[in-house]
Design a protein that fits this description.
Elements (H helix, E strand, L loop, with lengths): L6 H24 L7 H17 L24 E3 L9 E2 L2 H14 L10 E7 L2 E8 L2 E7 L5 E3 L2 H4 L16 E9 L2 H22 L14 H9 L4 H5 L4 E10 L7 H10 L9 E3 L2 H14 L7 E8 L2 H7 L1 E2 L2 E2 L2 E5 L3 E14 L5 E12 L2 E7 L3 H7 L6 E6 L6 E5 L22 E2 L8 E2 L6 H11 L12 H9 L6 H4 L6 H5 L6 H12 L6 H7 L7 H11 L5 H14 L8 H15 L9 H12 L1 H10 L27 E5 L7 H10 L3 E3 L8 E4 L5 H9 L2 E3 L1 H10 L2
Length: 727
């Protein structure tokens, strides 16, 4: 992929790509609700890789090249730390890229032309990655991949999957982790959606209510159905879902029963764990490519969904020598299938408002069969995409179903037809608030925030979540129920629930003890941590770390609206001057953010300033804020105290610490919080002012720069010793 940009342009694009890809990772891995197709996602990743290859010194800490899957911290399931990381795979999209990979393998291993190297090849099933830990042959734990290091504990759930034995047959090692995919067959997927629809219809009839099929949960595809079925807090739900499993590898092992990939996979199969029926070993690149074509031809008739073929170097000693790069092994590759397409008519364009306020245009299609699935809806992504395609209701269009995920519209066949252009709304269709796109972003978002019906319940759920106010007893179902009853319109209403004690007791399933526990949990948050409170409001760009950094500077949370207004005024009165270059302008804006918000740390830039200005610009948001917090102490329902960071003396007090690479025992946020408690400043970049670099696996340019500057470097274990010594 050609890279024709300046260094500054590359840095900005890498920042945008990191945010985009992180969002889509979260939607796909954590929420089972992808918004873009596999090829679109792959294109973003490939562009990121091309930019990083051209500008290796610009590789970001949050780069998608350093991540696997998505963090599991928001999941209600218990967390599991993988003894051996669960990696993702690099992708190839044509035969030339596969042959190039094979050549790289041979070069890395220093093999001569006459030296053989064998590979395994198997169909890449579209499911949810799962690791099964067996001890003395007995299943003791099952976990999802998560971010590769920490996953979700789904042990009770996999007990209901017939393909997964609770006891391995044969002589299994003391410890052996089998890794593979939980999936759902095509027929089972269709039957599940049918059953969900039938059950909802029967329930409506029993209650004498009008049946609305649009409100019935329907899974978009087998992968989403499998993920949603496995990642259930109640294992009984999983038990009702027709899930299957097959193995394709292994993780931690006290003993590996073979010297090649094929040998070990066949042993796993003999233990009673299914593997792909199309798994086979081949002697060269031509043979695995031929197998790819065989699998591609069989794909429409397979009883399960696949999106490519996976190749692996067969010899395990070769795999060990090849090792890993960033988030993927050098010895494995996923060869993806091309997309499937069909023609149909775009009948209408609807605007949907998501839980973050994003206005997403959805195309309603004349039903068309694409890749064996009838497609009636297609995402149009955003305003710019509609303009790029020039689509209007009535146009003849090409629809693509790629990676068996979400269909996309790829071409307009009738752009010259005389039809009125589609006008993207500038106000939210749900609440009437302004809908705007932030500078540098393509997504149009409702600014209504806390008052928008489409966002309100999700905002409330976030407000009470563990990372925010952490209010026990207010789960998703309870919030939905109370919202439907009109008891919860905004976060402040949570603190008025004690006035509804009798009303709550009158509801089915509520007892005095559970009601009192809920109300006690609410009352315990009357004086919340200011940073948690700010994070809980769900303001765009203000995550947990940013909230803490803001509060360290501002101190009093009640000052934020005024400072946001001040920044908004500054932007209006000091726009980019004619002839002012982008870099000086950006520097000036960052300095304004630091001055106005009293920023004391790295990581808060203009995006945060704009997000805060937009939030407080809306009268509705200001009303909710004043109702909750008030302009002065005693005027709101909560009394957040001035934010102070408690520190203790340590060897790094007053010093600047930089964390780089993959931290394996803690998150980056946890590391920064530790540094703060030790009286240190956590910075994101290495300079002459840096005193200490904590380098995890995969440390790159920052480690090199630290060495050049003579900066002290410790690994994660060394940092742990510093923390321990401080008490």
């Amino acid at each position: 992929m050609a890279v024709d940009v300046t260094e500054a342009e590359a840095a900005n694009e890498l920042m945008r790509l990191a945010k985009q890809i992180a969002k889509h990772d979260r939607l796909y891995h954590a929420e089972d609700a992808p918004e873009i197709s596999d090829p679109e996602y792959d294109a973003l990743v490939r562009r990121n890789a091309a930019l990083e290859a051209e500008f290796p010194h610009l590789v970001r800490e949050d780069s998608p090249s350093r991540k696997v899957g998505h963090t599991a911290t928001a999941s209600p399931l218990s967390k599991v730390t993988h003894e051996v990381r669960m990696m993702s795979l690099d992708n190839a999209f044509n035969a030339e890229e596969v042959e190039e990979w094979v050549a790289r393998v041979r070069r890395f291993l220093s093999l001569s032309d006459g030296d053989p190297v064998a590979f395994t090849a198997e169909d890449k099933i579209d499911g949810l990655s799962c690791s099964l830990r067996y001890e003395k042959g007995a299943l003791v734990r099952a976990a999802t991949r998560g971010d590769g290091q920490v996953g979700e504990d789904v042990t009770p759930n996999v007990a209901h999957i017939a393909d997964i034995p609770q006891q391995l047959g044969g002589d299994a090692p003391e410890v052996f982790e089998i890794r593979g995919e939980v999936y759902m067959g095509r027929a089972d997927f269709e039957a599940l959606n049918t059953r969900l629809m039938d059950d909802a219809r029967a329930a409506a009839e029993e209650k004498g209510e009008e049946f609305d099929p649009a409100k019935v949960r329907q899974f978009a595809n087998p992968r989403n159905a499998a993920a949603g079925s496995l990642r259930q807090k109640d294992a009984e739900v999983t038990a009702q879902r027709p899930l299957k499993f097959w193995a394709h590898g292994w993780g931690a092992a006290s003993e590996v029963p073979g010297g090649t990939q094929e040998e070990v996979v066949r042993v796993i199969e003999r233990w009673g764990v299914p593997v792909s029926p199309l798994f086979a070993r081949f002697d060269n690149a031509a043979a695995i490519l031929a197998h790819y074509e065989t699998i591609a031809a069989a794909r429409p008739d397979l009883p399960y969904e696949i999106d490519g073929v996976v190749y692996k170097v067969d010899r395990l000693d070769y795999q060990q020598r090849l090792g890993f790069v960033a988030k993927a092994p050098r010895w494995a590759l996923a060869h993806k299938f091309p997309a499937e397409q069909a023609e149909t008519t775009l009948e209408s364009i609807d605007i949907q408002v998501g839980r973050t306020g994003k206005l997403t245009p959805v195309g309603r299609l004349a039903p068309v069969l694409v890749g064996g699935v009838t497609v009636t809806n297609v995402t149009l992504h955003n305003r710019d995409e509609i303009a790029r395609l020039g689509v209007r209701p009535g146009d003849r269009v090409v629809v693509q179903r790629a990676g068996d995920v979400i269909p996309q519209l790829v071409d307009n066949l009738t752009p010259e037809a005389e039809r009125e252009a589609f006008h993207f709304p500038d106000h939210c269709p749900e609440c009437g608030s302004e809908a705007v796109a932030e500078e540098g972003e393509v997504d149009v978002r409702c600014t209504g925030g806390l008052i928008c019906p489409a966002q309100r319940t999700e905002r409330l759920k976030h407000f009470v979540s563990r990372g925010a106010l952490d209010i026990d007893g207010l789960g998703e179902k309870t919030i939905d129920q109370f919202f439907a009853l009109g008891w919860l319109e905004s976060p402040a209403d949570i603190f008025r629930l004690k006035q509804r004690r009798a009303d709550i007791l009158a509801l089915d399933g509520w007892k005095e003890r559970s009601v009192d526990n809920l109300l006690e949990s609410v009352e315990a948050r009357r004086e919340p941590d200011a940073a948690r409170l700010l994070f809980g409001l769900g303001i765009r760009q203000v995550g947990a770390v940013t909230a803490r950094d803001l509060m360290k500077g501002v101190g009093d949370i009640r000052l934020l609206p005024g400072k946001a207004a001040e920044f908004g005024t500054y932007c209006l009165e000091h726009p980019r001057a004619e002839g002012e270059k982008e870099s000086p302008f950006n520097t000036r804006m960052v300095e304004a953010v630091k001055r106005i918000f009293e920023v004391r740390t790295d990581g808060i830039g203009t995006a945060v300033g704009h997000a805060l200005a937009d939030f407080f610009h809306e009268e509705h948001n200001r009303s909710v804020w004043n109702d909750l917090i008030g302009e002065a102490p005693g005027e709101g329902v909560v009394e957040p105290q001035r934010y102070e960071v408690e520190t203790r003396d340590s060897p790094v007090s007053g010093k600047t610490v930089v964390f780089t690479g993959k931290l394996e025992t803690m998150s980056r946020d946890e590391a920064k919080a530790q540094a703060e408690r030790l009286g240190a400043k956590a910075s994101g970049s290495v300079s002459a002012k840096t005193d200490l670099l904590v380098a995890g696996p995969g440390a790159g340019s920052k480690l090199k720069k630290a060495a050049e500057l003579g900066i002290e470097v410790v690994d994660e274990a060394g940092w742990a010793e510093i923390v321990k010594a401080a008490g």
